[in-house]
Amino acid sequence: MISVDNLTVSFGGWDLFKDISLLVNPKDRIGLVGKNGAGKSTLLKVIAGEQPATSGTVTRSGDVTVGYLPQQMKVADTTSLVEETAGAFTEVIALEREIAELTDEIAVRTDYESADYEKLLHRLNDATDRYHILGGDNREAEIEKTLLGLGFRRSDFDRPTSEFSGGWRMRIELAKLLLRRPSVFLLDEPTNHLDIESIQWLEGYLKEYNGAVVLISHDRAFLDNVTNRTVEIMLGKLYDYKVPYSRYVELRRERRQQQMAAYENQQRMIEKTEEFIEKFRYKPTKSNQVQSRIKQLEKLDRIEVDEEDLSALSIKFPPAPRSGQIVAEVKGAGMSFGEKHVFSGAEFTIEKGDRIALVGRNGEGKTTFARMLVGELRPTEGSIRVGVNVNTGYYAQNQDDLMNGDFTVYDTLDRVAVGDIRTRLRDILGAFLFRGEDIDKKVKVLSGGERSRLAMARMMLEPHNLLVLDEPTNHMDMRSKDILKNALLKYDGTLVVVSHDREFLDGLVDKVYEFRDGGVKEYLGGIWYFLEKRRVESMREIEARQPAASAPAAAKPEKKKVDYQQKKELERTIRKTQGAVAAVEQRITGLEAEVAEWDKRLADPAAHGIDLSDGSVFGEYNALKERLAYEVHEWEKLGYELELLEDRLKEML
After folding, report:
1. Distance of alpha carbon 112 from alpha carbon 89, whole angstroms
2. Exposed, middle or buried, 526 (CB in 10 Å: 0-12/13-18/19+)?
3. What is the mean pLDDT of the chain?
């Protein structure tokens, strides 16, 4: 469909990437990955024809059409939501006109055997096929389905687009793009402005789509659920893996190890050969051997190792000061802005050590509640009372915009740092990837990811026992998100985080508060537990909205039989899950015993003949603890699943 051949993009003599080639095939699902700044967005722009390449070619076969969604774009403000979205069907409208004209012309022609008449018939057939492919028959239903899937309400359909925020305007552009049904989607961070429900809907849409998809995303779960091929851009080179992202990570690690082993073996051979040459270069009796080895080195096909990009966000949160057991009491809290009601009836208590995720569709009040919790907004209903000795650190969505653009990176921290920590500012900035001349850059020239990292560094200059983080992973690449998550896992305070990144929230939170339809609902479990519960509840809502069919009396016994079969199947699934839980518990017991034995041996290494200078000792110990942590996580997930299954069985009884 699309062939990229020997493509090079250079800026001022520096190659962003050089002589890369890529083939996009029909129905490919390609995840384009790499560090921020590696050239992913640039490659999409070149393929889309939005930016010229320095050299090389991009070739599209036949009548291939491309739909490109950039990270930022201007959206029209002159129409309503439905009218603007209907603009996606300009080709359909043109085809309707052409089909009508062709039909009229064919109706009056009598030269049935002529080549022109046959040509008209072929064109009418092609136009009609294309019309059906583009959904011309039911475009109003397609518009409604797509807008609802992306989180809009029916009450939004007639609203002017000028009333929507930037994130919702991007959804309008995404809806138009999906409705155009191009041969190839080129999507640059399509989930940036979507909530979890909309992301899941988009996953389902792209998986079933008949064309090809090339996308950039820092959402690991989204990549794993949509893509079947991963293309990495690293340090100007391109590496193609025919697997989803998580599998790619494993294969990349294996490839790196194999390359390093071969490279090291060759380097040892080269070193020994060069030593021989230097040692006997001036001995006449060895001249033939010396010349032979010189020629051998000249002809040697030297192994090149991919330069590994090890730079990453390395952070550690300061120890949390002691606070009271009650961090915040939320009693009947709600918020309205004038006539616009956001939510009401929030009733819960945040206790010391809680790890809470705030989720829900955009505009339902997640950010509003976060601002209320930190004291930026006062509730218009009820109250929010913060506990004793609670010291809050707040990372806002627009935190990076709140910094003075004329300050340097170093000055941004220096102006808020106090005490001895001022002597460690360079070390702190280094941990956030600001090294050397980077610290003298002005904030206004930084990328979105750099601004986010700087804002996080500034927040960490003083210890907090409550962290309220609103979309902290926006603009972060995979590696940075992983290390931020690990730092938060080790944080010993209370955490409240707004995020739509399921992989980031997995294992990080143990409570979920969903903001939906003007209210707040509590789920006691992790993010996957919430998503499964939400799916079940959504099915019930749909069933409740459907009118009960008046079935004849003869059909009732058949329904009972179906229910009986469903019940038996559910009971089998429960027994299977119970068996899986028992097996995991058995593995956990064994691993806990092994860890306890290691603890005992390491407490007195001399008595057990352990050499602590041997690095492999701690490697084996840490690997054992990681296996234990993994099994505990699996046990929790299976426990959630079993609870859901048992709840479903109770409903059937």
Report:
1. 33
2. buried
3. 83
pLDDT at 231 over 90: yes
326-539 under CATH 3.90.220.20, yes or no? no
Task: Encode 141-195 in three state secondary structure.
Answer: HHHHHHHHHCCCCHHHCCCEHHHCCHHHHHHHHHHHHHHHCCCEEEEECCCCCCC
Lowest mean pLDDT among 81-90, 360-369, 486-495: 81-90
Token reading at 585 = 């518990």
Share of the chain above pLDDT 70, in %: 89
Residue 349 has pLDDT above 80, yes or no: yes
How does DSSP assign 91-122, residue by residue? HHHHHHHHHHHHHHHHHH---TTSHHHHHHHH
pTM, 2 dp: 0.70
Stated as kind and residue range, the H or E segment containing 626 is: helix 615-652
Quote the strand ranges of 256-409, DSSP E: 326-337, 340-351, 355-360, 381-386, 392-395
**Gap between the Cα atoms of 524 and 505, Å rounded:** 14
Higher-scoring residue by pLDDT: 602, 376: 376
* Contact criterion met (CB below 8 Å) for 273 and 296: yes
For residues 643 and 578, the answer to whether their CB atoms sit within 8 Å is no
* 12 Ramachandran zone, left/alpha/beta (phi>0; psi -120 to 50): left
Residue 122 pLDDT > 90: no
Query: Worst-scoring range by mean pLDDT, 312-316, 324-328, 471-475, 514-518?
Result: 312-316
Return d(Cα 475, Cα 419) in angstroms, integer.
Answer: 31
Task: Supply the pLDDT for residue 497.
Answer: 95
pLDDT digit string, tens, across residues 480-508: 788 788 889 989 999 999 999 998 998 89
Lowest-pLDDT range, 281-295, 388-402, 544-558, 571-585? 544-558
Amino acid at 554: A
| DSSP letter (8 states) at residue 609 | T
CB 448 within 8 A of CB 306: no
Q: What angle do CA 471, 474, 479 make, to 5 degrees?
A: 115
User: 500 near 199, Cβ under 8 Å?
Assistant: yes
| CA separation, residue 245 to residues 154, 191, 516 (Å) | 36, 16, 32
How does strand 355-360 pair with strand 340-351?
A: unpaired
- Whether 78-181 and 326-539 share one fold: the answer is yes
Secondary structure (3-state) at 474: coil
Dihedral class, residue 507 (left if φ above 0, else alpha if ψ from -120 to 50, else beta)? left
CATH T-level topology, domain 78-181: Rossmann fold (3.40.50)
Beta carbons of 373 and 496 less than 8 angstroms apart: yes
Helix (H, G, I), strand (E, B) or coil at 550: coil
Instruction: Assess contact for 38 and 233: CB atoms under 8 A.
Output: yes
C-alpha atoms less than 13 angstroms from C-alpha of 345 in its C-beta half-sphere: 10
Query: Could you identify the residue written with the tokens 């070619």?
Result: 57
Overall average pLDDT of the 414-442 stretch: 80
Beta carbons of 4 and 47 less than 8 angstroms apart: yes
Query: What is the pLDDT, as a whole number, of residue 478?
Result: 79
Domain ranges of the chain: 78-181, 248-299, 326-539, 549-652
The answer to whether residues 507 and 526 touch, using CB atoms and an 8 Å cutoff, is yes
- Look at residues 171, 202, 186 and name the one whose alpha carbon lies nearest to residue 85: 171
Given the structure tokens 């809009």, which residue do they identify? 152
